[in-house]
Structure formats: structure tokens, C-alpha cells
Design a protein that fits this description.
Layout lengths: L4 E12 L4 E10 L2 E6 L7 E6 L4 E4 L1 E6 L12 H5 L4 E11 L3 H9 L5 E7 L23 H10 L4 E7 L2 H4 L4 H15 L2 E5 L7 H6 L6 E3 L18 H9 L2 E3 L9 H9 L23 H10 L4 H7 L2 H6 L17 E14 L5 E15 L2 E2 L7
Parallel strand pairs: 1-4, 1-5, 6-7, 7-8, 8-9, 9-10, 10-11, 11-12
Antiparallel strand pairs: 1-2, 2-3, 5-13, 13-14, 14-15
Helix pairs in contact: 3-5
Bound molecules: zinc ion.
The site of zinc ion (ZN) has 5 residues, from loops.
Length: about 375
Amino acid sequence: MAEPYDLLLTGGEVLDPSQDLHRRCDVAFAQGRVAALAPSLPLDSAREVIDVSGYLVTPGLIDLHGHFFYRGWPGAVAPDAACLTAGVTTAVDAGSTGWGNYPALEAYVMRAAQTRLYAFVHLCAIGLVSLTARVGELHNLAFAQVEQAIACIEEHRERVLGVKVRIDHRATGADNALPALAMARQVAEATGTRMMVHVSGSPVPLATLFAAMRPGDIATHIFHGHPHGVLDADGRLRPEVRQAQEQGIYLDVGHAGVHIDLTVARAALAQGCWPNTLSTDIHQPPPGRVVYDLPGVMSTFLALGMPLAAVVASVTCNAAAALGQAHELGTLRVGSVGDAAVFALQEGEFTFVDAAGNRVQGSQRLVPLLTVKGGRRWRPPPED
Ligand SMILES: [Zn+2]
């Protein structure tokens, strides 16, 4: 018999929230796409068969917030080593570059990577590269140019999802926060794209930030521990948080070690507020800071009490919707892009931390075993 499939993952526990699917299932790939999904597929139907019995199979993960301007900004990481080793097949650079230097990110990093990369272009001309000089990127608003940002997005629509702005004392100071937010709004409106708003360390109330946001926009670092967070002084979830979520604003984690407070996350989850998307904000941390990969962030939220299906949804179908790619990515529906990840769900005693020194204990941990990208098993290039 001819082998219609390139790759067959057999015997795994498939968890695909886009189809409400959680059961033992075989998945086959052909010509870069998901070709079949059934309780049992013939073992001789594929050129490569991998037995994944006892392991969890998910759509390829999507990391909505990372920093990949490798060699352009010392804070960035090499995308393939950070993503494809961890089950992440699609990732988003969150404003490492701005409208002035974005073309270098696209030409030298995004096009060279095997990871599928998208980006938010920073409202500041040089994005986070300004941090190399220890200068907040929007302390001087001359770097924020609405027309230039619009032109950059228009020119690079294939990979640019919208505009990034950090509303943070360190990025804008107090005076420039609202003008920068208004300019980012203008850019998003003019291009019909999204804003990703960094809300950690904001000098203005969260309600003010949400008021400038529209359905589809992303509030990242949602569970930070600074003033103007999701909880009021009594630890209650602010009503505007739920309203924003109901309105269609994505609440994104953007962990980063420093942009999450586990006590805030725990209190929000206990009050029924689950983040729409989990993401890493992966970067090169200074000594002593723990930055988790995406399975690490997922394991942290399992430990905080978020159910496994919701955790997986947040990094597959929810994240795909935040990219406007729910028809193609974050799903194992037959015909969609052939990306998948295989994990061991390890039992044991695990501790997850934040940079403030808070800890959470968990009894499970997701360990990435295998990544399928474009219908092929991904292998790291041989070391030289
Ligand atoms: Zn970031």
C-alpha cells in the first residue's frame, strides 16, 4: 500500500480544545497539513510512525509574547532554540523593534527562523533597543511617530499584527503615558490592526487603559503586582477586568518572571478570572531571574488551579484567535497547518516562582518531548 502520510503520531492522548477533543487518537500529517485524525489509523499508512502512547498531543503551541530580535537587542533570544524545543511552533515578537528597525527583525530573524514568527511593531522608532542605553523608549515622544508606524505596518502586513506600546513608568514616565496610548490607538485604527498594551507599572488606572482598547486588543502582563493591577485594595477583582474580557479584550499573562505576581494570579483565578492567553515574554534574563518557557508557564497555571484543557486552549485556539489565525493555527482540525506538540504530563512535586519571591506548588509538570512543524518532526540542527 502506498503511504499517503508523511508522519503518523499513534496512540497519544489528543487534547485539542478547538474541537472539544480530549481522547486517545491518532494524528496523521501530509503535505504540511493535518491529514487525518481518528481513533485508529493504519501503521503502514505513513513514512514515519512515532508511538506516543501515554503522552499528551496538542496542536503546536503559540507564544503570544516573546523577544526574538536576536543579535539586534541583547535582551532577545534565538527563536528556534527557545520555541521549537518547547512545543512552540508559532511565536510573536512583542515590540522588540519599532517602525524604524522592524525591517531588520523581519529580514534577518523572522525569515531565517523555522519558527513561524509574527510581530507587533513598537510605537517607538527603535522599540526596546532603547533599553540597551538604559533609556525608556517613550521618555521622548519624538520617537513615537504615528504616520511612520502606520507606513511600516502597511508595508509589512504579512507578519505584523499591530502596534505595541508599554504604558509603564520606566517606558513613558507619567506624562507621556496617555499621549503614547492615544497615538497607538490612532495607529491601530488607521491600519485596522490590534494594539498590544503592556499594563505592568502603569502610571494610570487599568480602567483608563481598557477604555482606549477595542475588542481584539491585548492587555499583556495582566497579573503584575504593581499598582493599578486587576485587584482592588481589598483583593477583589476590579469589575472593569471582567468587562474588558467580556468585550473581547485579550488578557495575556506575559510572565517574564518580573511581570507576574503569583498571589495576584491566584486571587484572580479564585474569583473566576482566567487569562485568555498564557505567554512567556521570553528574553535573556539578568542573573537570578527565572523566565519560564511556555510549558513552564502552563505548568505554573496548572499549579494555580487552572484546568488542563483551559491551559492548552490559552496557548492554542485562544492565542490563534488573538492572531486572527483561528482557521489555520492552534488546531488539529483536518486541513489546518500541520503543527503539533507532544508532552509528558509528569507527576511529582514541583515549585514555580515569580521574581517577587512568591511560590506555588504543583503536582504536575508538562515536559515537551516532540514538536511537529509543518507536518514534519522537528529536530534541532546538529551542533558544530
Ligand atoms: Zn515583553
